[in-house]
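Extended Data, panel c. Modelled sequence:
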Amino acid sequence: RMEPSGRKGGPKQVTPSMEMAFNDAQQLLYAQDYDGAIAKFELVLAMDPDNTKVMDTLGEVYMEVGAFERARDILNQSIQKMPNDGASKYMLMGQMLSGPESLLAFTKGCEILRKDLRAKANRGAAKLMGVKQKLIAGLCSIAELYMTDLCEQDDAEQQCDKVLNEALKLDKNNYEALQLLASFRISQQNNPAAVEALRASYNLWKDLEPTDDKMPSYEFRVATSKLLLELQEWEWAQELLQTMLEEEDSIAEVWYLLSFAYVNGGAPHEALETGEMARRLLEKAGITDPRTLTSNFREGLVTNF
């Protein structure tokens, strides 16, 4: 249901026409009709210009369709109207910003979520878990910033360690936080600890069916395989990539990564077969110029084939 805006002087009454337009917008959003959903949410916002919840949802939809300038504008409006309510607008802004500005946005979002977590402490595990997962996602985003944009800061390593510890204290079985911890340990040149963290993450989902809601995204698992290759865990990488190809066998990069695992794991015949499959898929996609590939992918192809 649509909630009234918390304007000064009392909440605005939700009229039947507003409720109907809001429900229509939600249905269009569920159907992934983003243009239709945007039109309806804009209509609702015109009826209730101070409703920050509608602004936050609308900002997210604009982000989804790549209208980042409009998304930033509407989320900034929400921030100005209710700066201490609603973490999602700060998390969305953090994704669209970079460096210190992104850090400020994610930090504010996490601050609001910590407050929400304290307020809901006695409301049951299910409600708490939803807030915890959002907070963990925000903390992981901060950790990623300290490993990339902000890695030159004097306290980057300490801050990254701090937020990852907080994330895993909230949920020691969060596979995203564990995998990010593995990446962080690699950056510290502590490969044994990286393997330990990655194994803990992998064990949480390795036996799940691809259709299971708890299964990490394909993109996440590609990232897992790259960390395994960086750690020279050739057989483990082969195991993961083979199962991924059983699920989806039309992605050239996955074939290439498997070939890389084979060639370094002492299986040259399998390396040639999988490398050839990667080449064919690239040709099928119209990629014949090596300069269009990422540097690591290109160097690997040249070196191994």
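DSSP finds 15 helices and no strands in the chain. This feature is highlighted in the accompanying rendering.
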